[in-house]
Amino acid sequence: MTSPLTLAVVGHTNVGKTSLLRTLTRDVGFGEVSHRPSTTRHVEGARLSVDGQALLELYDTPGLEDAIALLDYLEQLERPGERLDGPAKLRRFLASSEARQRFEQEAKVLRQLLASDAGLYLIDAREPVLAKYRDELAVLASCCKPLLPVLNFAAAGSAQVESWRSALARLGLHALVRFDTVAPPQDGERLLYDSLALLLENYRPQLQRLIADLHAQALARQHSGRQLIGELLLDCAACRRRVSSQPSQEQAAIQALHDAVRRREQTCVEALLRLYAFRREDAASAELPLLDGRWGDDLFNPETLKQLGIKVGSGVAAGAAAGAGVDLLVGGLSLGAATLLGAIAGGGLQTARSYGARLLGKLKGQRELTVDDGVLQLLAVRQQQLLRALGQRGHAAQQAIALKGGAASPEQNAALLAALRKARAHPEWSSLNPHATLAQAERQAQIEALAGALTTA
Ligand SMILES: Nc1nc2c(ncn2[C@@H]2O[C@H](COP(=O)(O)OP(=O)(O)O)[C@@H](O)[C@H]2O)c(=O)[nH]1
Ligand SMILES: [Mg+2]
Prior knowledge:
Strand order of the largest sheet: 2-3-1-4-5-6
Number of domains: 2
Order of helices and strands: EHEEHHHEHEHEHHEHEEHHHHEHEHH
Bound molecules: guanosine-5'-diphosphate, magnesium ion
Number of helices: 16
Shape: elongated
Number of strands: 11
Distance between the termini: 37 Å
Radius of gyration: 31 Å
Largest sheet: 6 strands, mixed
């Protein structure tokens, strides 16, 4: 079994070292991140494994605070006539009392880099290139370990990538990667591991395994995310509340439906956050716009009729499918009720239970309240936004994602509404309805269909 590649994450204080570990390990709780300098006081590590095999170990270190003074100190460690190489000089320094006092932080960093296979040298790319960085690099270079500069904060408008690139080239560092721990560039992690594989040929196979795993995990998360959204939409589309047509009761029913949908959306938000290993407070959704509800009657939905074995003419089907609503249904009632009663009588017990009560309710002047298409579309858009944002979010990010919603494309709407129409005819599929039967293959297939109708890139 190969040993893991060990990397020391080094650099000035406040350049995002701890943040980088959070993002690469997808652990929002790693270490302590702060805009205050010198929050990380000791070395802390994390290990990345694939299928139980440890591939990479990352060590967070304190910031290098006084490299200029340390470089001077290292210079004068040589006795007259002596020519020590970097590691020899460092060994002498680490054995000195200064390494336990004045340069205690720096000593921790250098010890960790000496014990590692290589270092990631983090830079705040918004900063101008100053002499202190040259001294810092000179000190680090004396460890004689490969160093990969990481230009962090690359997403900031003020990032000075080109001047850093040429300054680093003058110091003999030609490979570098751009990164942003809060908003990692697309493929940022892969590029980082690819660049390491160039510097550390021996570790190429395990870095490539890590890259392949990253890719597979990202796809799996996206797939699961779409399914979670599909299930939310299905639950809401199939949800119904029966109510007698008195205004006060209608209002209460609308409010109850609204609350149920809102809670269901929050459940989905939290499941997505967990899937992407973020915390509950990492996303905040705006209020749902007031739900009007839809006085639907899916007893005449072609899908319902199909389940009862009734063939409908395309005219009726098209009208019902377009959600033509009450007018059509009033017209269809005499025909529909009789036909349906016949079908229910001829059907099995399950059919009678499922549709008999609804039809009876309808005949008694009760109405059914369902979630309208507009709200379903808004939920779809919002949750897809969240899924996209989570895919692009670094685990070092500190600000919550705000979910607002927007417009979906007409093609997307059409595909989605078609998939939702079928769900509307299956109240037994909704976890928001009593007596739901959720473990059905057909329900699962419909969730897949809904997930497929979503277009999250
Ligand atoms: N916008 C942005 N902020 C970052 C980035 N990396 C770190 N930060 C912020 O910079 C500050 C210092 O980060 P930290 O990880 O504690 O730096 P360290 O001292 O090098 O470990 C924190 O407020 C972070 O949220 C980044 O890539 N982009
Ligand atoms: Mg830190």
